[in-house]
Write a sequence for this structure.
């Protein structure tokens, strides 16, 4: 089975270890859709049920909200939805503002990503394999090399700048120009 056709879901195994699911992912419905996450039918069903459960919880909260108001139910629904959306937008904005671009080295590859917690992201990559890592890469040896401000916008710029070095997903083949760029960041941090 090719690495790209394997489910990317994490599976907990006895003893507390985590490994990547070994099932075949479902074929993409649209191969041109680049951000499609390969996932098997079992994990897709599980995720769909969890999502449906969350929606049911939201609807129940909404029903309570409407019942608690003596006003027009439609207005209560609008208020609830606006409050929920505002809360979500504020949370997303805080996460984007605190995010930074990061470089993780593993073998001959460099992962260029963005996160508000690069060390947390490194931990996730080491334990679950991340999404679309190069085949055969020992991710337990991955190490955070350096970070830089700019978050998701900077990540996008870097992906464009080093697109010719892309191996798979956010992983790039280490080459002199990428290494030089990383060294310039570490030199700035040391100064």
């Amino acid at each position: 089975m090719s690495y790209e056709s394997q489910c990317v879901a994490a599976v907990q195994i006895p003893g507390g270890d985590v490994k990547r699911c070994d099932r075949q992912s479902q074929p993409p419905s649209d191969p041109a859709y680049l951000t499609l996450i390969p996932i098997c039918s079992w994990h897709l069903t599980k995720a769909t049920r969890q999502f449906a459960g969350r929606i049911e919880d939201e609807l129940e909260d909404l029903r309570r909200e409407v019942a608690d108001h003596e006003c027009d139910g439609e207005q209560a629904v609008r208020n609830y939805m606006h409050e929920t959306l505002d809360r979500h937008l504020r949370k997303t904005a805080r996460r984007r503002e605190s995010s930074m671009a990061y470089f993780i080295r593993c073998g001959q590859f460099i992962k260029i990503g963005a996160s508000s917690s690069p060390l947390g992201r490194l931990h996730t990559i080491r334990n679950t394999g991340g999404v679309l890592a190069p085949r055969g890469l020992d991710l337990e040896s991955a190490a955070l090399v350096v970070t830089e401000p700019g978050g998701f916008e900077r990540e996008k710029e870097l992906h464009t700048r080093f697109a010719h070095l892309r191996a798979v997903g956010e992983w790039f083949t280490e080459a002199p120009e990428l290494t030089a760029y990383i060294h310039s960041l570490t030199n700035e941090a040391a100064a």
